[in-house]
What we know:
14 helices, MetI-like fold, 3% strand, mainly alpha, 2 strands
Amino acid sequence: MLFGSKKSRQRLWIVFFVTPGLLIVFVFILMPLFMSLYNCFFEWEKFTRGKFIFLDNFAALFDGSYYSLKFLNAIQNNIKWFIMTMLIQNVIGLFFGYMLSRRITGSEFFKRTFFIPVLFSITAVGFLWGLFLKPNGLVNSFLTLIGQEQLKHAWLGDGKIATFTIILVNIWRWTGFPTLVFMSAVDAIEQENIEAAYIDGASEPRIFFQIVLPLIIPAITTITVLTVIGSLNVFEQVYVMAGVDGQPNYATDTITTLFYRTAFGTYDSSNPVIGIGSAMAVVIYLLTFSASMISILGLRQKETEL
């Protein structure tokens, strides 16, 4: 029989469909990771690999030197991204998701409205909001129109608020995603549990915190892990709205924009610093993996079955 038994043919089909995906993962994820890990142990002169220096490139990220100060500053900004996204975007998404699952008036309209910004291109969102937030842009013009000129700012030019401004724009764009995830999770709960709680006289807040919230922990875990990954790998929004040099005065810098400048030799140095750039790439991967695993393991213990 051609190609052997039925099981053999099934295995061949599995290999046929799985192999392209595995090749993509290997070429675009695993191979760059291993190359970065290898390159970070060497001294580099532009694109020429030099002598073996073991962990010196990693030490340069934490020894108080130039790259250390920039790297720690960038990590602080990434932490701001994570905290604000969790406290604002995901909490709002949880609230809206729960309310929409209650089938409030106009829920179908609001579902589509909340999700529309998610469909927009990051480049388009960043470019348009960059125009809106200029000193003579739409936001400051609106504040003047309503008589609140004292609130006008150079939103992207003030180092104290620039990174928070970009984070809020990103939150505006992405809030619809956790909204739909949480709405779907609440919809999946067996209504008998909620109806029984109503019959027993439980209030809406009590039902939410004691019944709904424990049962949607898997959805919360998913959103938390995605938030961790997104906050540590944010690049496009910052690049479009503030540029890759972290202006003003590195206030908007993230570990990915710093990596880009270091590895490709822009602004800070006209030459690429591949060794330190590779070390940054490895640290970014380790931070993302570790934070994601901690989130998964920590929240999995909270999962509850009624």
